[in-house]
Amino acid sequence: MHSVLDLFPIERNVTRTGACEYEPPASVWFGEDAELIEALLTFYPRKTPRTIVDATVNAGRFWRGSKRSVIGLDIDPRHRPAIVANNTAMPFRDESIEALVYDPPHIPNQGRDRSKDFNTRFGLVLRSSKQNHYTFSHTFPAFTREAYRVLRPEGILLCKITDYVHHHRYQWAHIEFVSAARQAGLMPCDCIIKVRKGPIIDPKWKRAHHSRRQHCYWLIFRKSGKCE
Ligand SMILES: C[S@@+](CC[C@H](N)C(=O)[O-])C[C@H]1O[C@@H](n2cnc3c(N)ncnc32)[C@H](O)[C@@H]1O
Fold first, then answer.
1. Count of domains in the chain?
2. Rounded to two decimals, what is the model's pTM?
3. Cβ atoms within 10 A of the Cβ of 76, count?
4. If you take atom 17 of ligand 1, which residue's CA is the nearest one?
5. What's the CATH code of the domain at 140?
6. Which of 50, 173, 174, 189 is geometrically suited to a Cys-Cys bond with 227, CB 3.0 to 4.6 A?
């Protein structure tokens, strides 16, 4: 079996004198989210972030084994987050957070299909309307504006986002998120493809005329005029 390093060796950036300056994360990631977040939090911030907020913490899977001090926020009190709040109106002062992590719900309404409990597994505390094509993209602008408000200058936002086909349409969630973040004033800086263990398959599909997406994206934004 291949290791991720066999397939996508970490590129070393070597100066003219031969000294290694830094090691960027791989642009395609086969490992766990928790390992990737640690690599992102080490690589992108200009200095070690001390105030880190997970704005959709759920069960806190991203932080298992992490030594970082993270404030978990979620709208659903059943997950017992440190802060129960809506991430479009977070109880933080302006420019007080150095790193924000965001993993919004991405599975839309499942109609009459009760065979999978997406509500419990993916934290769908809201339903989406036909007007919004039963997706959650309409929630991105309010979140990105709030992210801009609470982030310190040069602070970073790490966002896990998944495109999918729903309502007979390809839902370009990652593009809509980049667009919302840009409008809010955040600089889209990088995009890492995370390969999932398997594609999301809706049990309703008898025959799907599209590829089975087996990946999602980790997008990196900076509250800055510059990526680097
Ligand atoms: C996909 S889950 C996050 C999973 C988490 N990253 C993990 O790996 O354990 C999305 C979470 O976002 C929360 N959520 C949805 N809308 C929210 C909002 N407006 N404000 C705060 N949390 C929200 C849900 O309750 C759910 O727990």
1. 1
2. 0.84
3. 14
4. 75
5. 3.40.50.150
6. 189
The mean per-residue pLDDT over the stretch 161-171 comes to 79
**Residue 124 counted as domain residue:** yes
Does a structural domain hold residue 9?
Answer: no
Centroid of ligand 1 to alpha carbon of 103 (angstroms)? 6
In this prediction, residues 57-63 reach a mean pLDDT of 96
User: Does 31 fall in a domain?
Assistant: yes
Contact 116, 5 (CB under 8 A): no
- The pLDDT tens digits for 209-222 are 667 778 899 999 99
Which residues contact residue 208 at a Cβ distance below 8 angstroms, ignoring those fewer than 6 apart?
165
- Is pLDDT above 80 for 95? yes
Residue 1 lies in a domain: no
Q: Which domain holds residue 196?
A: 27-222
Cα(121) to centroid(ligand 1), Å: 10
Residue 84, Cα to own-chain centre: how many angstroms? 19
pLDDT tens digits for 62-74?
999 999 999 999 9
